[in-house]
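Each lists sequence, tokenised fold; shown next:
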Amino acid sequence: MDINKKANSNGTRILIVDDEKIERTTLAGILQARGFDIHMAADGEETVRVAEVFEPELIIMGIDMPRMDGRKACERIRSMKLTSRPTIIMVSSLSDNDVLADALRKGADDFVIKPVNDVVLLAKIDAT
């Protein structure tokens, strides 16, 4: 997908970030079926670059990633001058309260635990 493409008339722009391709593509399939405009990134550094151009309304991002983890990427995104403030939902296989609390302190709005339950994720998206 061209990151310069704006959302179609029925789609919220969502950026899916995870270092595991299977995780990205699974979430993308679920969300594209609902009409969302999806772009994907593989790590925090790519997320920051893509967020500047794609200007997502929502970012679903893994916490543990190489090069730049989700918490650092979240901090960087929150410091950027974007047209609007994207909602950030962190995804983690860890249920470590300290890690999740740190992600929230660094600008995340919510989180889900892997394996991601699509009903729960869609409910959280609908609530944003």
